[in-house]
Design a protein that fits this description.
It is a single chain. This protein has 6 domains: 3-101, PriA, 3(prime) DNA-binding domain (GIY-YIG endonuclease); 112-170; 186-361, 3-Layer(aba) Sandwich (Rossmann fold); 371-409 and 471-607, 3-Layer(aba) Sandwich (Rossmann fold); 410-470, no CATH class; 616-702, Alpha-Beta Plaits (2-Layer Sandwich), CATH 3.30.70.600. Helix 7 (186-197) crosses helix 8 and helix 16 packs parallel to helix 17 (585-592). The strands form 7 sheets. A 7-stranded parallel beta sheet has the order 12-13-11-14-15-10-16, with helices on both faces. A 6-stranded mixed beta sheet has the order 5-2-1-4-3-6. The protein is built from 22 helices and 31 strands.
């Protein structure tokens, strides 16, 4: 008997098409279908009646049992409508790239190698190079197939670690060691009980850095795992996964812990296989992990919920993983917990009007909040590290403690300019200044990756009077080494630390007190927990305030607060903020410790201007190879929107007008009803109405984190 199905195509941004099949199929299964002269992977999203037009037949069935269950399909449908993205693009997110080609998951093998000893015991021991190689691999992946290890590591090394009690060979059904016992204070116990007893609402744990938020959701996770359900922990960046992974394994040694993010390489596929097959009890991951079809999900935790890394804005679909996680928890009947020391302004607002259940942790159970000082840099031309900061660094070093220095930009100098004619060396593909990297003697664009050698004269006037201005991590690293030649300095940015292995190595060195000063970008501002950090220095605290964006003050407040939280966890801590705007309200709230004051003033400003949470935003960006093409397209878009249910701002040139050789104009929509606004867009903005290909010419970003 022939049946008909709606099939959403993978990587093909059009509505589902109707295909026929002589075999019985289930909703959610992947199939291979003919599209013009090629074959593509698709998803069966619904049954169809026999159409009046001619249909083509499904070529192959990939999943006899669908990986996409009814809950994930419902989530995909809703997010497709919310973010104005074809459902096929949304469903693609549930699979790692290797699985989009139609390959089937391999059956698991019986024998695995896993860690047996605690992380602290391992770190205290002397290991050979091959032993260390295997242990570090297990720290990242938790469990590895025995046969795969034998291809890289000698059998004698494996046996040596088994004899030392560091690893063991297990089957997934085997016995695991007893779990670690944790003692919580009364406030932590109260929050755990409240969340477990009200498991159908969104909860926000708003706690100062170091207040023990992680132990609260670990305790909730313990109860969920004991009931036979699974747990998903989301973190904003890969830099947070190594430490959280070690803490999770130490807390739950009897459970299988997985990790999932885009930098795992070939092991990403294995982690995905284990998660969907029910072999992973606790999964740690970045935003992409929210789409994995985990079975029996009982708890979703979003750590550092304020972080803009949860928003995917570089490629379609432009979704917000925090909002997706909230809706998925509702669909799955799972507990949903947000955690932050500096929640989004919207989250704070919803918590204080009762839409979200608020739990506050305003003190640290161990250690004290650091003392914070602002240094006025307005009249200190050319001074990178203030005298006040240098004196404190010297004292910290003599006491045997550590210093963290935050620098917002990578490289040595953030601009190179001719002092005679004023020419600034800029990227030919983007409207941004090139950054000078001293170690490589190159100029680089951090948007498109363009690289050129540093010239010895100006290309416009021929002058050799060329100066390098602005401060990056390389310059601060060099400055620290000059002032303190005996200190061990490590730089942490994307240029220096470009993979998980390098990050794990440097974090281990910091924890083992092999580093005195850490100079880093945003990678070091949150989530990292080192008890001997006695001083945090903000070298350029004003960088984010200068951004032409409605979240500029919020970002500054969050960034400085998060960075300040690295200090004082095990020793007395101090924070020095170097600023050319020392009277800024965001800085004042940080120094006084009155975060409520900042949120109140920011909410008043947003209400007056009509920004979230009082109105929703949609950012439309027209893309063209020439300014004329981009401008003509955005003007056509505006004409189609004139009768829409929203306020239209623009069109204007985007703040970065040229990006990756593409010119950009934008329109900002302020909406009272987001659903109606998106429905209006999808109905009126089509290739038929506009006359051009929307996929490559118009970016529709629903609820953008930034208008920049």
């Amino acid at each position: 008997m022939t049946s008909y199905f709606f099939v959403a195509l993978s990587k093909y941004p059009i509505p589902p098409l109707v295909y026929r099949s002589k075999e019985p199929l289930q909703i959610g299964s992947r199939v291979i279908v003919p599209v013009r002269n090629s074959k593509r992977v698709g998803y069966i999203v619904d049954r169809a009646h026999e159409p009046s037009f001619k249909t083509r037949e499904i070529v192959e069935i990939i999943d006899k049992e669908p990986i996409i269950n009814k809950n994930m399909l419902l989530l995909a449908r809703e997010m497709s409508k919310k973010y104005a993205s074809p459902i096929g693009e949304i469903l693609d997110l549930s699979f790692p790239p290797s699985r989009l080609k139609g390959s089937k998951a391999k059956k698991k093998k019986d024998k695995y190698i896993t860690l047996k000893a605690s992380i602290s015991d391992i770190l205290k021991s002397r290991l050979g190079s091959r032993e260390l190689e295997l242990v570090e691999l297990l720290l990242e992946l938790n469990t590895i197939e025995y046969s795969a290890v034998l291809k890289k590591i000698p059998r004698s090394t494996i046996q040596s670690l088994i004899r030392k009690g560091f690893i063991e060979i297990v089957e997934f059904e085997g016995e695991m060691p007893p779990k670690k016992i944790v003692h919580m204070n009364e406030n932590q116990k109260k929050i755990v009980e409240e969340i477990l007893s009200d498991n159908r609402r969104t909860h926000l744990i708003h706690g100062v850095t170091g207040s023990g938020k992680t132990e609260v959701y670990f305790e909730i996770a313990d109860k969920i795992l004991s009931s036979g359900k699974r747990v998903l922990f989301l973190v904003p960046e890969i830099s947070l996964t190594p430490q959280l992974l070690m803490r999770t394994k130490a807390r739950f040694p009897q459970y299988k812990i997985g990790i999932y993010h885009s930098s795992l390489g070939s092991s990403r596929k294995r982690e995905w296989d284990r998660a969907i097959n029910g072999e992973t009890d606790v999964l740690l991951g970045t935003r992409s992990a929210i789409w994995i079809p985990i079975k029996d999900l009982g708890l979703i935790v979003v750590d550092e919920e304020q972080d803009e890394s949860y928003k995917q804005y570089a490629m379609r679909p432009y979704y917000n993983a925090v909002d997706v996680a909230q809706r998925r928890a509702e669909i799955e009947g799972a507990i949903f917990v947000l955690s932050s020391a500096t929640p989004r302004v919207e989250t704070y607002h919803y918590a204080h009007i009762g839409k979200i259940v608020l739990h506050e942790m305003l003190s640290r159970p161990f250690g004290k909040m650091p003392k914070i000082f602002v240094v006025d840099m307005r009249h200190r031309k050319g001074e990178i590290l203030s005298n006040e900061l240098v004196r404190e660094m010297d004292k910290v070093a003599r006491d045997g403690n550590q210093t963290f220095l935050f620098v917002p930009k990578k490289g040595f100098s953030t601009r190179v300019q001719c002092l005679d004619c004023g020419y600034t060396f800029s990227c030919p593909n983007c409207d941004v200044a090139l950054t000078y990297h001293r170690n490589q003697r190159i100029l680089k664009c951090h948007y498109c990756g363009h690289v050129e050698t540093l010239p010895n004269k100006c290309p416009i006037c021929g002058s050799k009077n060329v100066a390098r201005g602005g401060v990056g991590t390389e310059k601060v690293e060099l400055e620290v080494s000059k002032i303190f030649p005996g200190l061990r300095v490590k730089r942490i940015d994307r240029e220096e630390i470009n993979n998980v292995e390098a990050l794990e190595k440097v974090l281990k060195e910091i924890s083992q007190m092999k580093v005195d000063v850490v100079v880093g970008t945003k990678m070091i501002t949150k989530g990292l927990d080192f008890p001997r950090v006695a001083l945090v220095g903000m070298v350029d605290a004003d960088h984010t305030l200068a951004m032409p964006d409605f979240r500029a003050a919020e970002r500054t407040f969050q960034l400085i607060s998060q960075m300040s939280g690295r200090a004082g966890r095990g020793v007395a801590g101090r924070v020095i903020i170097q600023s050319r705007e020392p009277d800024n309200p965001a800085l004042h709230s940080i120094v006084t410790g009155d975060s409520d004051d900042f949120y109140r003033s920011e909410l008043e400003r947003r209400k007056a201007l009509g920004y979230p949470p009082f109105k929703e935003l949609i950012l439309l960006t027209s893309l063209g190879k020439t300014p004329k093409i981009a401008k003509e397209r955005i003007e056509k878009v505006k004409m189609e929107l004139e009768k829409g249910p929203f306020e239209i701002l623009g069109p204007v040139e985007s703040p970065i007008f040229k990006l990756m050789s593409v010119y950009r104009y934008q329109i900002l929509l302020k909406c009272d009803d987001l659903t109606k606004s998106v429905e209006f867009l999808t109905k009126h903005l089509t290739q038929k109405t506009l006359g051009f290909d929307l996929i490559n010419a118009l970016k529709i970003d629903v609820q953008p984190y930034s208008t920049f």
